[in-house]
Amino acid sequence: MPVVRGKNIDPLFTAEQIAERNDAMAKQIAEGPTKDLLVIAVLKGSFIFAADLIRALHNNGLAPEVEFITLSSYGTGTVSQGVRIVKDIDSDVKDRDVLLIDDILESGRTLLFAKELLFERGARNVTIAVLLDKSVKRKEKLEADYVGFECPDYFVVGYGMDVAYAFRELPFVGVVTGDA
Ligand code: IMP
Ligand code: MG
């Protein structure tokens, strides 16, 4: 089992499995609404997935504009949960086909917020691609259009995702199982 920063990490999805799913997702995305495509990656967790998926899109004939939005949840675990914009995109989304990219779809709050925001700003179409779907944790009525993997209800790290700012650099997705 890989040991990183003194912790055992149990791999859940390998770099090879992820690359294969990214290519399959890119093929699906290329068949959807892609006229004047604007890709918006939701930071920070999606940065590696977005980088790989965007190159897979290129390999499938697409030439999207790429933007980034940083969103943050507040009030986690309390009654008043919400999402706020930490850093906004620069582009106008009016009449654009937008593809939102995020690492994990869990409660659905983050991506529902983002999707509604983009429609309010006049986007023509908003689709969602996520690497992982933790569907058992869903609280909102929202599904992704493109999903890499159904994810068991573990806290996962790697491939852009962190726990306490660590492990984003891992080339695979794994679960921290304890001290090495
Ligand atoms: P939600 O769908 O709004 O509940 O939140 C999804 C967001 O929570 C993701 O974009 C991640 O930033 C974060 N998240 C949820 N589960 C995990 C995990 O297992 N590891 C790392 N981040 C997670
Ligand atoms: Mg996130």
Topology:
Layout: E1 3-4, E2 7-13, H1 15-30, E3 37-43, H2 47-59, E4 65-74, E5 82-87, E6 97-105, H3 109-120, E7 125-133, E8 146-150, E9 156-157, E10 173-179
Parallel strand pairs: 3-4, 3-6, 6-7, 7-8
Antiparallel strand pairs: 1-2, 2-10, 4-5, 9-10
The chain binds inosinic acid (IMP) and magnesium ion (MG).
Task: Summarize the model shown.
The protein has one domain (15-154): 3-Layer(aba) Sandwich (Rossmann fold). It is 23% helix and 36% strand. By secondary structure, the chain is an alpha/beta fold.
Give the helix/strand class. Answer: alpha/beta
**Order of neighbouring strands in the sheet with most strands:** 5-4-3-6-7-8
CATH architecture: 3-Layer(aba) Sandwich
Mean pLDDT: 95
Order of helices and strands: EEHEHEEEHEEEE
Number of domains: 1
Distance between the termini: 9 Å
Q: Characterize the biggest β-sheet.
A: 6 strands, mixed
- The CATH topology comes to Rossmann fold
The radius of gyration is 16 Å
The CATH class designation is: Alpha Beta
User: What shape does the CA trace take?
Assistant: globular
Number of helical stretches of at least 4 residues: 3
How many E-type strands?
10
The proportion of residues in beta strands is 35-45%
Uncertain runs are none
Percent of residues in helices = 10-25%
Distinct ligands, ions and cofactors found in the model: inosinic acid, magnesium ion
